[in-house]
Design brief:
By secondary structure, the protein is α/β, with parallel strands linked by helices. The protein has 21 helices and 19 strands. The strands form 5 sheets. Strands 1, 2, 3, 4, 10, 15 and 16 form a 7-stranded parallel beta sheet that branches. A hairpin with a 4-residue loop joins strand 5 and strand 6. The longest helix is centred in the last third of the chain and has 25 residues. The chain is elongated. The N and C termini lie far apart (58 Å).
Length: 582
């Protein structure tokens, strides 16, 4: 840190002399063109603010990010999934004071609860970070120095409306005078239009980031990379903000007002803005500052053999809620451009949740506890519901009745029902012969099997097209449509009747073909549902004797399985996968 502070003092003297003149190098150097291994795939969750306990919205974000990561695993990628807690800022400082707790102890208590939710959700997190971690402080200090040295930070006076709850400044046009909807007895006040949070007028001297210098470059980034922000409604929002223009960003607060945060290097009277601090976490978990930036003292545990290139950075997908898209799609890429670092490939901004069509709020008492939901419905069933019904563009609606509909109709009525109808001892499916049946179908297709064959033959491609967008709910609709078709196919072909005609070779052959098509549908569905329901699909694939070496996405094609058949490892019947709920 001493070396870092020494470099900052040198940069600060240049900064003071520069005043508010433009930066020397506006959009980075060749370092912005870092290229990581094409097989490395980095997914990020937003780090959660530790001012309250987790709710169903946090659970949705966790499961969505984990689903993306597990899907990349199925595709054979080398993956990384980061998570963590955002622990600095005035809101945390005030909350700890109100609770009468030491601030770090307050943060630890809530951070531990979020870590527990990650585990309870079966999220395959590889890195959990806290912004109170010393390694993160070093990363943020170095990132700040980069911005100073490159001429993007200057000191000036800042005035504006500040929302403590959002940890954000708003312009006059981004606020409105109105009554407080949470307490109509209070006199009217000023609120942020975007978030609905109360604001207060703040006038102070602080450091600013030359955000306005990146307006055109950010527009160019979004126009040349149409999938950089998804869905399109969020991309259009961001473009609207950029084209309307904006001022430079205040990136520090006086230490007299905000003590709980990372001090500005070389200026102990100021604290780094909480969002700059928080956003850098995505680089911290990749070992930032990297060797070429920080010298011999840098961590290289997250760099590739070529130590000049981080193994996973930049992120491939950053999962965020729609309420923080501005910070991730405007501030974050602008900060990275200023630091000469590569931009995230995609920001997936999902929608929120309502409860029985009403906005969730503590005052209404309709906030869903994810731990209780997991205990009530089981982990994989609630993971399935939250991804199937969760909104990307539009808000999803949570209700116990709808959870039960998904459980009974989809998981029990379609998936488990199809499998259990075909693995009974009375039907005796000959899975060792399925490979040969699959090979016959392309050249000797029976007209009775053609509709289901045509549906299964392109199932993986149609599902993958939705999964690749992050639209897992729509992808699962395609999968369950195939399961419904296969259940009708079983009813029409009546294998239980064919099984009784033991003296007829043609009936015995037909029986195995019908069972093949049904269990092939189950096999394909279970493979593709693994990212969403990893535990239940593992048991289901065990039940139908699918080799563990044949469960990747490349095996999710018609006839690509059954190369090697393993004895069923599963105990009990398929029907026990989704037991009757109490």
């Amino acid at each position: 840190m001493n070396a870092c502070l020494h470099r900052f003092h040198r940069a600060s003297s240049r900064l003071a002399a520069a005043g508010t003149t433009g930066p020397r190098r506006l959009f980075g150097s060749s370092k912005q063109q870092r290229t990581k291994d094409a097989n490395s795939y980095y997914v990020t969750q937003p780090i959660f603010y530790v001012n309250s306990v987790p709710h169903i919205g946090h659970f949705y974000t966790i499961v969505l990010a984990d689903t993306i990561k597990r899907y990349a695993d199925l595709l054979g990628k080398n993956t990384k999934l980061s998570a963590g807690t955002d622990e600095h800022g005035l809101k945390i400082q005030q909350a700890a004071e109100k609770a009468g707790e030491d601030t770090l102890a307050f943060c630890t208590r809530y951070s531990d609860r979020f870590r527990e939710l990650e585990a309870a959700s079966n999220a395959s997190v590889t890195d959990f970070i806290r912004t109170s971690d010393p390694k993160h402080h070093r990363a943020v200090a170095h990132f700040w120095e980069r911005l100073v040295e490159r001429g993007f930070i200057y000191k000036g006076k800042h005035e504006g409306w500040y929302a403590v709850s959002d940890e954000a400044f708003y312009t006059e046009t981004q606020t409105e005078e109105r009554a407080d909807p949470t307490d109509l007895t209070k006199p009217s006040g000023r609120f942020a239009i975007e978030s609905g949070q109360p604001v207060e007028w703040v006038s102070e001297e602080n450091y600013k980031f030359r955000l306005s210098a990146f307006k055109d470059k950010l527009v160019e980034w979004l126009e040349t990379n149409p999938d950089a922000v998804y869905p399109e409604i969020r991309r259009n929002e961001v473009l609207g903000w950029l084209r309307s223009g904006f001022d430079d960003l205040s990136v520090s607060r006086p230490r007299s007002r905000l003590k709980w945060g990372i001090p500005v290097p070389g200026d102990p009277d100021h604290t780094i803005y909480v969002w700059v601090d928080a956003l850098v976490n995505y680089a911290t978990v990749c070992g930032y500052p990297w060797p070429e930036d920080a010298g011999a003292g840098a961590s290289d545990s997250s760099t590739s053999r070529n130590s000049r290139i981080p193994e996973f950075f930049p992120p491939d997908v950053q999962v965020v809620g729609k309420d923080i898209v501005r910070f991730h799609a405007v501030y974050w890429p602008a900060l990275l451009m200023a630091a000469g670092l590569p931009l995230p490939k995609r920001i997936l901004a999902h929608a929120h949740w309502t409860m029985s069509s009403q906005k969730m709020s503590k005052s209404k008492g309709n906030v869903v506890d994810p731990f209780e939901a997991i205990a009530t419905y089981g982990l994989d069933p609630i993971r399935y519901f939250i991804i199937r019904n969760g909104g990307i563009s539009d808000d999803g609606d949570y209700s116990p009745e709808e959870v039960l509909v998904r459980y009974k109709k989809d998981l029990v009525g379609q998936l488990a029902n199809l499998a259990s109808r075909c693995v009974s001892k009375s039907l005796c499916p000959d899975v060792e012969g399925f490979r040969g049946i699959a090979e016959q179908q392309r050249s000797q297709l029976d007209i009775r099997d053609a509709p289901l064959y045509n549906l299964l033959d392109g199932l993986a491609e149609r599902t993958k097209a939705k999964f690749d967008q992050g639209e897992f709910g729509r992808g699962m609709w395609i999968v369950f449509d195939a399961l419904a078709t296969a259940n009708k196919y079983i009813s029409n072909n009546q294998p239980w009747v064919l099984a009784k005609q033991t003296d007829d070779p043609e009936s015995r052959s037909r029986l195995q073909t019908v069972l093949f098509y049904a269990l092939e549908t189950v096999r394909l569905a279970a493979i593709m549902l693994q990212p969403v329901m990893p535990q239940k699909t593992e048991l289901l694939l065990d039940h139908i004797s699918v080799s563990r070496a044949e469960r990747s996405w490349k095996h999710a094609r018609f006839g690509a399985g059954w190369q090697t058949v393993e004895p069923s490892r599963a105990s009990g019947s398929v029907s026990t996968l989704f037991p009757k709920l109490k």
